[in-house]
Amino acid sequence: MPGSICDILFSAAALLGAPEATDRLGLPAPARRVVVLLVDGMGTHLLPAMHADAPTLAAVSAGEIGELRQLECTFPSTTPTSLVSLGTGVSPGQHGVLGFTVNVPGTDRVLIHIFWHDDPPPQSWQPVPTWFHRLNTAGISARAVLPQLLVDSGLTAAAYGGAQFRGVPPAADYATDLLAEIHAGPGLIFGYTSVLDSAGHAHGIGSPAWLSAAAHVDALLTRLVDGLPDDTLLLVTADHGGLNVPTHARVDLDADADLAAGVAVVAGEPRVRYLHTRPGAQADVLATWTEKLAGAAQVYSRDAAIDAGLFGPVRDEFSPRIGDVVAVATGETAILASAHEPPQITDMIGFHGAGTDAEMAIPLIVVAT
């Protein structure tokens, strides 16, 4: 079985001497610095398509630079869930960030985690201490170099709370700032780039825009590899993979009266839908969705989804964030909700979120100096 995204900071912390940390991944040691770069959307299955425009990544895949391993992200295979799983080292059922969007229990509100600030308060919505907090509390420096716009977000607090932050303005050279922080001293240094994921959503995986983003990622990786100080371990990973969804494989629940019947709140995302039903309607919604999406999605009740272990063990206080009915797309299906979501979602070409290998398998590139 491959390791998990939850294991990365556990292992990094162990190399840095943190109490209660174990090296679950068997990383090269010793290292005074551990650099973790997360490339949003760079699933393992997408690496071959990047090689022509990404010579350093191609060299990694060929065994010429570092070591390429495979891990899995947590479910759903979506950015907020994965980032918090990385930061805390626990599964979504334990940290509570259970999807791209979730219903705030007791309300009709849908929380979009990437646009979240301080309502609900991050410390109560996601109460698990991050490894950044644990390291800094233990006297081991843990820093995060992020685009300036992300520094004060709720998701940043949930995933990297307790880190020493370095915000990078939009016009600045991100690689320069990241390398400066790496050279500033020992400890854990985290970096993040979203260019590949953004291009995949908007233009499609394999599109010219996506290949240009792949080249951008490769240039960043090349500069890091060339500029690392001695006694440094670089770990490059991702939060999920993805796939393109053709028009014929899209289902719009808001254009189908049968699918919309009995549904009060729609959350999740197109590859994993959380349906919060009207009183007494759960059984009917479950039966209708099971019948109409046969062969296109696996449909669960909330209890069945939890019992199947999709989210890992789920804390009781977090279970209402999961829909009364959960529809997990299979194959290349996307379940749109055109009346509930911005048109940018409906217009996307690349998607992720479900449990296929193309979405769940993520690389771990290990480079030691």
UniProtKB/TrEMBL annotation:
PANTHER family: BIS(5'-ADENOSYL)-TRIPHOSPHATASE (PTHR10151:SF120), ECTONUCLEOTIDE PYROPHOSPHATASE/PHOSPHODIESTERASE (PTHR10151). One of its GO terms (molecular function) is hydrolase activity. It holds the Pfam family Phosphodiest. This is Alkaline phosphatase family protein. It comes from the Bacteria. InterPro entries: Alkaline_phosphatase_core_sf, Phosphodiest/P_Trfase. It comes from Mycolicibacillus koreensis.
